[in-house]
Write a structure and sequence with these properties.
This protein has about 170 residues and is mainly α. It has a single domain (about 1-135, about 155-169), classed as Fumarase C, Chain A, domain 2, CATH 1.20.200.10. Helix content is about 60%, strand content about 0%. The chain has helices at about 10-35, 65-90, 100-125, 135-145, 155-169; strands at about 45, 130. A two-stranded antiparallel sheet has the order 1-2. Helix 1 runs antiparallel to helix 2 (about 65-90), helix 1 runs parallel beside helix 3 (about 100-125) and helix 2 packs antiparallel against helix 3 (about 100-125). The N and C termini lie far apart (about 70 Å). Its EC number is 4.2.1.2.
C-alpha cells in the first residue's frame, strides 16, 4: 500500500507551505490596514515609502510590499490545490502528475523564500508608530479636510504640501 501513494509526502509537505502562506497573508493584510492613512485610515504605523505615492491622495504611501506578498501567497495556495489534485490522480505506482507536483512544490518554496526576503529587506525602517495615531479617527478625518477636491494641475503640489504637513505633525 505504501508504494501506491508516492505523492503523499509532497502533498503533506506542501500543506505546511500553504499554512506559512496563510500566515504571511494575514500579516501583510494587517500591516496594510494598520498603515492605511495618513489621516483617514487607521494610521497606527508608518511604512517605508519605496515607490511614489498617489497623486489623487496626497500623503498616501502605497503598501506595495504587502500587496506583492499577498499575491505570491495566493499563488502558493493555488499551487496547493493543483498539487493535491495531482497527488490524488496518480494510478497505482505511475503518477503522470509527478512533474507538475514537483514543479508546483519548488515554485512555492522559491516564491515564499523570495517574498519573505523582499518583504524583510524593504520593510526596514517601517513599523514606526505614526504621530497622531492616538487621536480618534473622526478627528483625523476632520483634520484631513474630507471631501476637498484638488484641481488636476494642483494635485502634485497639493501632495507635496500634504507630505510636508504630515512630517511637521
Amino acid at each position: 500500500m505504501r508504494r501506491w501513494r508516492p505523492a503523499t509526502r509532497w502533498v503533506h509537505a506542501h500543506g505546511a507551505l500553504k499554512g506559512l502562506a496563510a500566515s504571511l497573508m494575514k500579516i501583510a493584510n494587517d500591516v496594510r490596514w494598520l498603515a492605511s492613512g495618513p489621516r483617514c485610515g487607521i494610521g497606527e504605523i508608518a511604512i517605508p515609502e519605496n515607490e511614489p505615492g498617489s497623486s489623487i491622495m496626497p500623503g498616501k504611501v502605497n503598501p506595495t510590499q504587502c500587496e506583492a506578498l499577498t499575491m505570491l501567497c495566493c499563488q502558493v495556495m493555488g499551487n496547493d490545490v493543483a498539487l493535491n489534485i495531482g497527488g490524488a490522480s496518480g494510478n497505482f505506482e505511475l503518477n503522470v502528475y509527478r512533474p507538475m507536483v514537483i514543479h508546483n512544490f519548488l515554485q512555492s518554496v522559491r516564491l515564499l523564500a523570495d517574498g519573505m526576503e523582499s518583504f524583510n529587506e524593504h520593510w526596514r525602517g517601517g513599523d514606526r508608530t505614526q504621530s497622531g495615531a492616538h487621536q480618534p479617527a473622526a478627528q483625523r478625518v476632520a483634520d484631513a479636510g474630507d471631501g476637498v477636491e484638488y484641481p488636476h494641475r494642483l494635485r502634485q503640489s497639493g501632495g507635496n504640501c500634504q507630505k510636508k504637513r504630515i512630517k511637521r505633525g
